[in-house]
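**User:** Once you have settled down, spend some time on the protein underneath, comparing sequence with structure tokens, and judge whether sequence predicts the tokens.
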Amino acid sequence: MTTVLLLMLLAVGAYLVAVIEDWVYRGHVQLSAPLIAGIALLGRESVVPRKPDRIFFETGPVLLLISAVLAATVIPLTPGLIVTDLATGALFFNAALVYVLVALLMAGWGPDGAYAMIGGWRFLGQLIAYAMLIVMPITAVAMRAESLLTMQIVASQSDIWNILYQPVGFVLFFVAAMALAFLPPFDLPTAKGELAGGVEAEYTGARLAIFRLGRLALVITLAAATVTFYLGGWHGPWLPTWAWIAIKILAVTSIMLLAGRYVPRIRESDLLGWCWKLGIPLALLNIFLVGVLALVFP
């Protein structure tokens, strides 16, 4: 029952992400836009390239969606709503998201097209840049909670949220989450202005609909993780727990979609340099500071 409820919430969340994204790019809210776009995609013919790697071509979009759903299973939405409260939930979250890279490489390699392949390899470049900036901030969050249980991580923020306790970790995780979801300015894998869609260039019809649904689910999952790790989860005054988690997730999602609109697209080589020369030292500093605070103020 909890799994079904999670899938329903992910579907609703993905729909709202599509509405917000449409508002960001068009400047006005149209609640029916995602529905119309989805029906249009499903109504089109699913064209298969001439010489595809059929297994990779078919599996890529589905694996992207599965990866987002698996990561969401360890995210607590309310004190009693979590699919799997794993003892290593924070690590499982990171492990599930590794398959986003696999999915995009499959989607890039499978069609046997130049633009798609370039998009897939660009995402590999982004992964090398941001991968440590996902793991290391989560490490600091787990240090404060003294647990990898995501429920315990939320409970540890009852007095002060991690965004205030470790702001550097929050910034690093948020930037890495945007790169993982390949949102602007980290949208090199799709890059419509120069790669004609990149990894999704050769997909049409139902396959493209699944690919885009997977990306929307990935955005909402990463927003929920940001709320869980840094914004106190369901904690908040006056309103019920489900209302706070919903408000926070929608707020983080909106910021993720809006932030990149005003920043030029970043080359993967530049992202790699900044992350390894600046991001990783800052992440190590964040772990050190959290360790000192945990010893001084246990």
Residues 2-296 form one domain. The chain has a mean pLDDT of 85. The radius of gyration is 19 Å. Residues 122 and 189 are 6 Å apart (CA to CA).
